[in-house]
Design a protein that fits this description.
The complex is a heterodimer. The radius of gyration of chain A is 31 Å and the shape is elongated. In chain A, about 30% of the residues are buried. Chain A is built from 13 helices and two strands; from the N terminus they run ββααααααααααααα. Helix content of chain A is about 75%, strand content about 0%. In chain A, a hairpin with a 2-residue loop joins strand 1 and strand 2. Chain A folds into two domains: about 40 residues; about 200 residues. Helices cover about 80% and strands about 0% of the residues of chain B. In chain B, helix 2 crosses helix 5. Chain B is elongated and about 55 Å long. The relative contact order of chain B is 0.16. Classes of the chains: A mainly alpha, B mainly alpha.
Chain lengths: ~270, ~170
């Protein structure tokens, strides 16, 4: 290594002649300038920067609290949805005939008859008090209002309403949503037990359950996305997906309500 | 009482009443819309109620306030579909105690909203930021609102059980 005129040269390499090196530097600078200008002209959108920054900031893979549980819920709900959809596909050819003939015995097994003959089911049906069928039906309606109402709040925010509510501030709404869902899972199970053979024979009932399973998956996905967005990652990258999930959620809950109402009328 | 029944019988004789009851799909569609409207109304108004009660303190009050107009949309859906039920089968509602209590609770809920704005409590909490606590008066209005709307759902569900409607 030699130090000459403030420049570092490598021994053995041809000594740079000052004029040549100056012109070479000028060419280098010109190339740099051209490249710089090219990139300035084709500057990437802020969204690309945001995505790059968020990717750089994202923690490698630390398990967030409860994310495993959520994954299990999503997996279980997906599996239920798949099973029910397959079930519907199998039954759908016999549906019209079953409805016409009300052929309950042919489509349901002994387990459902046993279920409807249990003490609890008989009590739900025969109790004249408010704690019987009518009270459980009220709980089912109340849970619907809470669960779907909370979903509607989240969906409206994701579709641009009430934009002063930050993404992080939105997360507690899911607690109300899950509370309503649990109320309805329990009250729904009791209503089913009270009327198992007929409910199971009604294809609309299976369709309703499938819709609810899909709806729950959509809400779980939304909660996970919002958690990621609230924990620092840029929202921009997942915003379009959240909008799509919000629309899907509104459509699915509306369809589930329609199916649920029709279950009450078809039998 | 006599005039109420006369009105109900006249209502039953209208073309609109015939339309609602003689096409199965009209009643079923209105039922579904009534439940959808209920979810929107209860979700959006309930959101403001739980914000005021302090069960959901993370957003600013003004942010949650922006949901109220959507709650009004739910209310409108339910007023229209509810009116169609009444026109369709007026006689099963006029003497139904559950129906009267439901209407009473809706009127009380409206009265509660009116007082909430007239007394200036709504204006006083409008500027509250995230995690700010609301004054006691706001909590009373919010608790009353939740109680009344849950009551409306309860008596709506009880229409066939306390009374004779379907």
């Amino acid at each position: 290594m030699t130090l000459k005129d403030g420049r570092i040269g490598v021994k053995g390499s041809p000594q740079p002649q000052s004029r040549e090196s100056e012109s070479e530097d000028a060419i280098d600078r010109a190339i740099d300038e051209t490249i710089r200008r090219y990139f300035m002209r084709h500057e990437p959108s802020p969204r690309v920067y945001a995505r790059a920054i968020s990717a750089a900031q994202q923690p490698s893979a630390p398990g967030r609290d409860g994310s495993a549980l959520r994954s299990w819920i999503v997996a279980a709900a997906s599996a239920t949805a798949a099973l029910l959809l397959v079930n519907i596909a199998i039954h759908s050819f016999g549906v019209v005939a079953a409805l016409a003939a009300s052929d309950i015995d042919g489509r349901t097994g002994p387990i459902l008859f046993w279920l409807s003959s249990t003490g609890l089911a008989r009590w739900i049906n025969e109790s004249e008090t408010i704690f019987g069928y009518s009270g459980i039906l009220f709980l089912h309606t109340f849970g619907l209002a809470v669960a779907v109402g909370a979903s509607v709040v989240v969906d409206l925010r994701m579709l641009g309403a009430a934009s002063r509510i930050s993404v992080a501030a939105l997360l507690p709404v899911f607690r109300f949503m899950w509370f309503g869902f649990i109320v309805n899972a329990l009250s729904g199970a009791m209503l089913f037990a009270a009327d198992a053979p007929r409910k199971a024979a009604n294809p609309l009932f299976e369709f309703k359950l499938a819709l609810i399973a899909v709806g729950v998956v959509v809400m779980a996905l939304m909660e996970r996305r919002l958690l990621q967005a609230a924990s620092g990652a840029a929202l921009a990258a997942s915003e379009r997906r959240l909008t799509r999930l919000a629309i899907a959620s509104l459509v699915i809950w509306a369809a589930a309500i329609v199916a649920g109402r029709l279950v009450a009328y078809t039998f | 009482m006599e005039s109420t029944h006369a009105f109900a019988i006249w209502l039953k004789s209208t073309d609109l009443s015939w339309l609602v009851t003689h096409h199965g799909w009209v009643w079923a569609t209105c039922e579904a819309l009534h439940f959808i409207g209920m979810s929107i109304l209860f979700g959006c108004i309930g959101a403001l109620d739980v914000r005021m009660l302090g069960w959901w303190k993370s957003p600013p009050v003004a942010g949650v306030n922006a949901l109220v107009r959507w709650g009004v949309l739910g209310l409108l859906i339910n007023l229209v579909t509810g009116a169609l039920f009444f026109v369709g089968e007026p006689l099963q509602y006029v003497d139904n105690p559950a129906f009267r209590l439901k209407m009473l609770f809706i009127v009380l809920a409206g009265w509660n909203v009116l007082l909430f704005y007239v007394t200036g409590v709504a204006d006083r909490i409008e500027s509250l930021e995230p995690d700010d606590d609301t004054p006691f008066s706001a909590k009373v209005f919010a608790g009353t609102s939740l109680f009344l709307w849950v009551g409306v759902i309860f008596f709506g569900r009880m229409l066939p059980y306390l009374g004779n409607s379907f």
